[in-house]
Amino acid sequence: MTNNDVLKKLRVALKLRDDDIVKILELVDFRISKSELGAFFRKEDHPKYMECGDQILRNFLNGLVIHMRGPLPKKIASKTKVADKSSEKKVSTKKPDYKKSESIKPKSNKKASNK
Length: 115
Description:
By secondary structure, this protein is mostly helical.
């Protein structure tokens, strides 16, 4: 299965149009025109057919992840984390003490002695 086949199958499965694919590629700062994109979807024997390279497919898949999940949250600088941790209140991990309720004592099974 070629990269072109993978791109075609994803396009059909996700019901993507050329505009959508161009926008997805722009999410990862990869610019491509609709006519270049159309060349990937042509039949192999067509004179304008172009083979989809690994870089284009990789960028499309990375852009698709961002498109479907959304962008990654920004990482906080390590200095900020240290400052935030020192200013936070410490939360007790100790289990709370519950008063023991008086339970009913079971009857003893001692036999009465005969005198």
